[in-house]
Amino acid sequence: GESVGLHLPTLSVQEGDNSIINCAYSNSASDYFIWYKQESGKGPQFIIDIRSNMDKRQGQRVTVLLNKTVKHLSLQIAATQPGDSAVYFCAERDNAGNMLTFGGGTRLMVKP
Amino acid sequence: ETGVTQSPTHLIKTRGQQVTLRCSSQSGHNTVSWYQQALGQGPQFIFQYYREEENGRGNFPPRFSGLQFPNYSSELNVNALELDDSALYLCASSPTGGQAETQYFGPGTRLLVL
Fold first, then answer.
1. Which of A31, A98, A102 is best to mutate for the B interface (most B CBs within 10 A)?
2. Would you call the peptide bond into B8 cis, given omega within 30 degrees of 0 as the criterion?
3. Is A102 within 8 Å of B43 when comparing Cβ atoms?
4. Measured between beta carbons, which residues in chain B are less than 8 angstroms from residue A41?
5. Per residue in A20-68, pLDDT tens?
6. Cα A91 to Cα A94: distance, rounded to the nearest angstrom
7. pLDDT tens column, B55-68
8. A37-A40-A42 Cα angle (round to 5)
9. Are A112 and B47 in contact (CB under 8 A)?
10. Nearest residue of A to residue B110, measured between CA atoms
11. What was the pLDDT predicted at A4?
């Protein structure tokens, strides 16, 4: 079936550097995408979302880019901090339903 | 914090037993979705409730059932527990409108089946 996947299972960055987490999706009918952050022992925390009629959206220190041509989604975190260390999931929703389909996650480790 | 609460936080059951997990949605949210998250994996959609009716279901057997109450809180029931049901069960609520886009998650209930 359709699935959302991530290129890298673990990303290690230096504190203060920018981080880029990538995600590939396969369902061309998806019209809405979300990035979540999940810390150990907690539920996923909403970071930022983007609709399929956009290709870029910015939040506080975070930017999501959507390339529908190659079905690719990325999350950019500026000036990465130790508190950003967590597992990051991308999720998609297709225009036929209400369920979110999650990828397997990328662990971000921030080195001091 | 999202305002979504779940109970209990942890639970241990034995194979064949039944379990009920509870979720209170964020104030003003009328849609509740349940997800199962196995260790090291992303959440998997179980089902969604909107206006007390099931509004979509993932690839889970009928022994996974749910309820939504008039105050929008929800229950997830799992019968005939299997070892593979051990996971973190997440509840997510969404704003009014029915079409659940931005879903806000609770802390989860960790279920261990022995």
1. A98
2. yes
3. yes
4. 107
5. 999 998 888 888 999 999 998 899 999 999 999 999 999 999 999 999 9
6. 10
7. 889 999 999 999 99
8. 70
9. no
10. A41
11. 52
